[in-house]
Write a structure and sequence with these properties.
mainly alpha, 0% strand, elongated
Length: 112
C-alpha cells in the first residue's frame, strides 16, 4: 500500500507541543466568533448568523489534521500577499464574496 492510500501514516504529532497546539486552536476559535459577527453586520444580516464562522474554523482544523508540513494555508485570509498593495484588493474580494453569501443566505431565510 502506498503512502497515498494511507493519508495519516506520516502524521506524528509531537507530544511536547500538544498543549500549545490546543491553546492556539482555542484562541483561533474564540477570535473567529466576533470576526464572523462583524462580517454578518457588514453584510447586513443578523449578527447571530455570523456564528456560522465556527463551522469554517472546524473545517480549518480538519484541513490541518489531514495535511503534514510546517504551514498549510487553508483560506485567503491565511495567505500573506507578496506585495502590500495587494492587501486592499484581497480584502475587497473577500468582503464582496462574504456579502454575496450573506445575501443568498438571507434570501433563503426569507423564502422559508
Amino acid at each position: 500500500m502506498t503512502n497515498q492510500a494511507k493519508p495519516f501514516s506520516g502524521l506524528k504529532p509531537d507530544p511536547k507541543s500538544l498543549g500549545r497546539d490546543i491553546v492556539a486552536g482555542l484562541v483561533a476559535a474564540v477570535a473567529a466568533i466576533p470576526d464572523g459577527m462583524a462580517s454578518a453586520v457588514l453584510a447586513g444580516v443578523n449578527p447571530v448568523a455570523g456564528r456560522a464562522r465556527l463551522a469554517d474554523v472546524s473545517d480549518e482544523v480538519r484541513e490541518q489534521l489531514t495535511r503534514t508540513g510546517t504551514l498549510t494555508a487553508v483560506g485567503a485570509e491565511h495567505v500573506l500577499p507578496a506585495d502590500s498593495r495587494l492587501v486592499g484588493s484581497i480584502n475587497a474580494g473577500r468582503a464582496a464574496g462574504e456579502a454575496v453569501l450573506a445575501a443568498l443566505a438571507k434570501q433563503g431565510a426569507d423564502a422559508a
